[in-house]
Write a structure and sequence with these properties.
Strand order of the largest sheet: 9-8-7-6-5-4-3-10
Number of helices: 12
Shape: globular
Distance between the termini: 33 Å
Structural class: alpha/beta
CATH class of one domain: Alpha Beta
Strand content: 5-15%
Helix content: 25-40%
Largest sheet: 8 strands, parallel
Order of helices and strands: EEEHEHEHEHEHEHEHHHHEHH
CATH topology of one domain: TIM Barrel
Length: 338
């Protein structure tokens, strides 16, 4: 397992990070604990969760993921784990957070309330990386950055990051932190995969020039790049099969990930992986790691059986000819997720 630095911070992590967003809903506690143990044994030391997990967001199980991670954390040396969690951003975006009855602006009260609750559920007195889950572009960044700085100074947080942020928002946050003398974001957690390369358009250059690391999520395109939805398949228990049944926001997300263009590009990526003698999942994770602006790729599974193909990407470097073939597909089927 290779290791990389998060931004300009002192924290160095495995280049694969274990995400936990299905723990407590799609994945029960017993299996979640087994998955976490297997990841740790494989050399993964970076784990990502959030106060609003598991997904889909629901008041009946919100916070359960942090409780499961906290239970597991007690079985490991705390210093051996780099732990990341998130504070829910504003609920005036495209969904309403179940945290604090949807009152999740990124102001002082909500952030301080959120960190105390997360620390309690996680059973620790600090988190290594604390991230804003969604940006609050209508609130001055100075207020958010100042309260995050207070948490770092209090020893409750080591470094800070953002998630689902824009180029404008990332630069504004950096400028605001500089103006008020606060800590800045060291990481950004956005969607990035073979089927969604929009991060490369602008945000990648911001990361390079400002020393911010991407920790991408959904490198397998929400499971689409595994091929499970090819030919119109709707596998039982799969995330987007369930989301289409739920309707509303979840169905809209499913249709973004699973559509004619994403399935067409996936078919070609699967053929490239087969020619290279590897699983398309392994290729997708390895490809994600193989970018200079990426520090650690966040993977996620709902069952133990999904781990081997992901772990096979550890230390794997895709050859130049395969990278060029992948680029060719991306140029011919542009932005399959819109």
């Amino acid at each position: 397992m290779q290791r990389r630095r998060l931004g300009k911070s002192a924290i160095v992590v495995s280049d694969i990070c274990m995400g936990t967003m299905t723990f407590g809903s799609q994945t029960d506690e017993a299996e979640a604990l087994r998955i976490l143990d297997q990841c740790f044994d494989a050399g993964i030391d970076f784990y990502d969760t959030a106060e609003g997990y598991p997904v889909p967001p629901d008041i009946k199980w919100v916070g359960r993921t942090e409780e499961i991670v906290g239970k597991w954390l007690k079985t490991k040396p705390r210093d051996a784990i780099v732990l990341a969690t998130k504070v829910s951003g504003p609920s005036h975006v495209w969904f309403r957070s179940p945290c604090r009855n949807g009152m999740t602006a990124l102001d002082r009260r909500n952030i301080t309330t959120a960190i105390e609750a997360s620390l309690k559920k996680l059973g620790t007195d600090y988190v290594d990386l604390y991230q804003t889950h969604w940006p609050d572009h209508e609130l001055p960044y100075e207020e958010t950055m100042e309260v995050l700085d207070e948490l770092v100074r209090a020893g409750k947080v080591r470094i800070t990051g953002c998630s689902n942020e824009t180029s404008w928002g990332l630069m504004k946050s950096i400028q605001a932190a500089q103006r008020v003398g606060a800590v800045r974001y060291q990481t950004i957690q956005n969607n990035f995969s073979l089927n969604n390369r929009r991060f490369e358009d602008e945000l990648a250059q911001v990361c390079r020039m400002e020393g911010v690391s991407l920790i991408p999520y959904s490198p397998i395109g929400g499971g689409v790049l595994a091929g499970k939805y090819q030919g119109g398949a709707r596998p039982e228990g799969a995330r987007f099969s369930r989301y289409l049944e739920i309707g509303g926001r979840q169905a809209a997300m499913a249709q973004r990930f699973v559509n004619d263009r994403s399935l067409a590009s996936t078919e070609r990526f699967m053929a490239l992986a087969a020619d290279a003698g590897m699983s398309p999942v392994t290729m997708a994770v390895a490809w994600s790691k193989q970018h200079d602006f990426v520090a650690s790729t966040i993977v996620g599974v709902s069952t133990e059986g999904q781990l081997p193909e992901i772990l096979a990407a550890a230390d794997l470097v895709l050859p130049d000819d395969l990278m060029k073939a992948i680029d060719k597909v991306s140029k011919e089927i542009r932005y399959p997720m819109g």
